[in-house]
Amino acid sequence: MYKVDLPVEQSLEKAVERRRSAETARKARIFNTRLRVMGLDLDALNQQVQEKKHQQNMEIQRGNAFDKLGEYHDKALLQQDIDEREKRAALHTDLTKYWATHQREEDSHDADLKCGLKGAFRITIPEGELGPASMKIFQGEGIGEEQRRREQMKKTDRDLRAQKEDNEKRHMGDKHREMIVSKELVHQDLRGVQQNALEGECKKAARIALDNYNQALAAERAEKLKEQHRQEERENLAEMQHTLTSDMMTECAEAAKREVEGGRPPRVLVDKWKGMSPEQLSDIHREREEQRLEKQRQRDAEKIQAAAWELQLLKLSREAEEQERRAEELRREKRTQTDLYNMQLAREQQAYQEYLNKKLYTNKPSKEYFYQFNSVSR
Fold first, then answer.
1. How confident is the model at residue 4 (pLDDT cuts 50, 70, 90)?
2. What is the pLDDT of residues 180-195, one digit of tens each?
3. 3-state class of 257 per DSSP?
4. Where are the stretches annotated Disordered (predicted)?
5. In terms of pLDDT, which residue wins out, 345 or 37?
6. 3-class DSSP assignment, residue 7
7. Whole-prediction pTM value?
8. From 241's CA, which of 86, 96, 199, 266 has a CA 20 to 30 Å away?
9. What's the domain count of the chain?
C-alpha cells in the first residue's frame, strides 16, 4: 500500500476551526466565575442592542426609500398626464387649423347651394358631358313651388287669425271670471260686516247679563258674610259664658273624676286634674319604702351568692394549680429521659464517625480526580 496525500477540503477545515473557536468562546463564557456569579454578559447585551439599533435604522432607511420612490412615481404619473393633455390640445389645435385652411365649406362643390355664394367654384364642363352623379336638381322638382308657397302663407295667416281669436276669447273669459270673483268677494265682505255687527251686539248683551249676575252674587255673598259674622259673635259669647262658669275656673276637684261602670275606680280626667290628695301621697310613700326594703334584701342575697361563688372559684383554682404542678413534674422527668437518650445517640454517632474517618476512609482524592470534571462545555 502506498500512502497518498489527498488534499484536505478547505471548507471542512474552516468549519472545524469555526466550531473550535465557538467552543473556546463558550467555555470562556461559561467557566468565567466572575460573570457567572456577579452578573450578566454586558458585552453580549451591548452587542445585541447595537444590532437592534442597526436593524431599526435599516428599516427606517428602507421606509424612507419606499416613500421617495412612491413620490417619484406619483410625480411621473402626474407629469405623464399633463403631457398627454397638452399633446391632445396641440393635436386638436392643429386639426382645427387644418380644417380652417384646407377643408373650408366655401371651397366645396356645393358651396353655391349650401352657402349661397356667388363667387363659388363652378364646374366648367358642359352639362351634356356630365353623368347622373353630377346632377343637383332633377326634373320635376321645381314644379308648383310658387303655388305651394302661397298656399302655405295663406294657411299661416288663417292659423294666426284663429290663434288671435282664441286669445281674445280666453281674455274675455278671464275678465268675466275675475268680475264674478270680485262680486262674490264683495258679497262675502258685506256678510262678514253684518255678522261682526250681530256678534258685537250678542257679546254686549251677554256682558250686561254677566254683570247683573255678578252683582247679584256679590250682594248674596255680602249678606252671607254678615250672617256668618253675627253667628260667630253669638258663639264666642256663649263660649265665654261657659268658660267663666266651668269647673276649670272654679277649681272643683270632683270635676277631675268620672264614674266608670262595673265597680271600677273612677277615671281621672287629665285636663281637669288639680293634684293628688294626702291619702294618695301617703300610699305612694308607703309603697316606695316597701320597694326599698325589698331591694335591700335582694342586694344582701346577691352578696352572699357572690361570696359563695368566689369561694368555689378559689377552690377550683387551687386544684388547677396542683394539676399543673404535677404535669410540670411529668414533663421535666420526660425531658430528662430524652436528654439522656440523645446523649447516648450522640456518643454512638461520634464513635461511628471516628470509625469512618480513621479506619474506613483513609485514601484522600488527588488533584487529577477533580480535574476530570468540567473539562468541556457540553
1. very low
2. 888 888 888 888 888 8
3. strand
4. 142-172, 274-295
5. 345
6. coil
7. 0.23
8. 266
9. 2
Distance CA 255, CA 269 (A): 8
Where does a domain end: 216, 242, 268?
242
Percent of the chain with pLDDT over 70: 75
C-alpha cell at 57: 435604522
Other residues' Cβ atoms within 10 Å of the Cβ of residue 35: 16
H or E element that contains 325:
helix 278-355
Shared domain for 162 and 91, answered yes or no, is no
Our measurement of the distance from residue 287's CA atom to the centroid of its chain's CA atoms, rounded to an integer in Å, reads 77
Higher pLDDT, 196 or 276: 196
| Cα 294 to Cα 300: distance, rounded to the nearest angstrom | 10
SS3 124: coil
| Residue 262, phi-psi category: left (phi > 0), alpha (psi -120 to 50), beta (remainder) | left
Least confident of 122-136, 235-249, 344-358: 122-136
Residues 6+ apart with CB under 8 A from 109: 121, 123
Note whether 173 and 165 are within 8 A (CB). Answer: no
Provide the Cα torsion 372, 373, 375, 378; round to 10°. 140
Residue 299, in any domain of the structure: no
Give pLDDT tens digits for 248-268: 665 565 655 655 455 566 666
In which residue are the cell numbers 252683582 written? 215
**Contact at 8 Å (CB) between 272 and 255?**
yes
Final residue belonging to a domain, choices 200, 218, 242: 242
- What residue numbers bound the domain in which 194 lies? 151-242
